[in-house]
Amino acid sequence: MLPRYARAPMTAIWEAENRYRIWFEIEAHALDAMAELGTVPQEAADAVWAWWKTGPAIDVTAIDAIEAVTRHDVIAFLTWVAEQVGPQARFLHQGMTSSDVLDTCLAVQLSQATDLLLFDLTELMDALKRRAYEHKLTPTIGRSHGIHAEPVTFGLKLAQAYAEFDRSWTRLARAREDIATCAISGAVGTFANIDPRVEAYVAEKLGLHVEPVSTQVIPRDRHAYFFATLGVIASSIERLATEIRHLQRTEVLEAEEYFSPGQKGSSAMPHKRNPVLTENLTGLARMVRAAVTPALENVALWHERDISHSSVERFIGPDATITLDFALARLTGVIDKLAVYPERMQKNLDRMGGLVHSQRVLLALTQTGASREAAYAMVQRNAMKVWEADGALSLLELLKADGEVTALLSPEEIESRFDLGYHFKHVDTIFSRVFGS
Hints:
Elements: H1 8-13, H2 16-37, H3 42-52, H4 60-70, H5 73-85, H6 98-134, E1 139-144, E2 147-153, H7 154-179, E3 181-182, H8 196-206, E4 209-210, H9 221-248, E5 255-256, H10 276-289, H11 292-297, H12 308-337, E6 339-340, H13 342-350, H14 358-367, H15 372-388, H16 395-400, H17 403-406, H18 411-416, H19 427-435
Parallel strand pairs: 3-4
Antiparallel strand pairs: 1-2, 5-6
Helix pairs in contact: 2-3, 2-6, 2-8, 4-5, 6-7, 6-12, 7-9, 7-19, 9-10, 9-12, 10-12, 14-15
């Protein structure tokens, strides 16, 4: 995790203090359940919570010093707690194993992180919706293969992005549900030394579900699904960022990242205004997706448990969520302040001499009785003249001068096929599908 690409609320979830506080809650809630079942003294649970309610500072340095000797993080934490609480702390961790603490804690942290990411997605969608309605009927050229195709509106471009992130929100909510499971089942997951009711109690207290079969660790297919979902969101970020980067190219310049007063685009060329934020987002998306393959490889563990997944998750848990949180916030800012140039969009629409209307003429010719092949040939031979003249010629005028075309369509009928507004008659329908009526 680099501070440059991190925001404080998400970073705090992964700091040692938060991790140790979650560990304590897992252990203390389990102790409460065991006291209620009569397997440990109630005085032990009371003593542990009494100490906690004094608001003790988590001494990360002291715990790290113990771990330097024990070479075991959970034991180091329990040793430190015992030093603070006294003899009653001996009842902590009864019948539990380290993975009960570690995996349940990770579930809590990922749930906390997901709540922030869902909020980020909502903020981004709000910005996209606002800008989509602002440019609902702003004409622009649609491109396929990077080449002028037919007219669209800039609002439709943003509506498409909204719909994509709306799907991401739903997927992420499902992934949160899937990852939020608790395992307090003891060594190899058999509950031999701990009652399953303890697990149920801890799960309820922490807002988690019970893991049906934990085999000492929570199955990593859950985590793979979670990180794959983050990877899909990152790819959607990159898709929108790439669109903006293309639209900002000098030859296009239909939209542009906000360029703040005093901002510099190049150390060498004072005229430069570069799409640095969306280029940055493209790179950040790659880093989030980099977590997906290791998460998939973590699924295959030896027998009931090994720790080959552990080191991986210590990287990808913080890095993927912190990076995605930053990226979503940055993209929201880009969309919120995006400079849009309708005049340039219209200029680009008109640049190729009306070629964007070729399909309508083709269809009109077929409706007169011409074969599709013949109609295509009539339109294409005129369109290629416009193409080769780089838009200096007019497709409309060439078609009106083509005797084979005018034998089938009157000049007025040809002109009617060059109506830009015709392409936008179903924009309301699409918006209703995306945003609701």
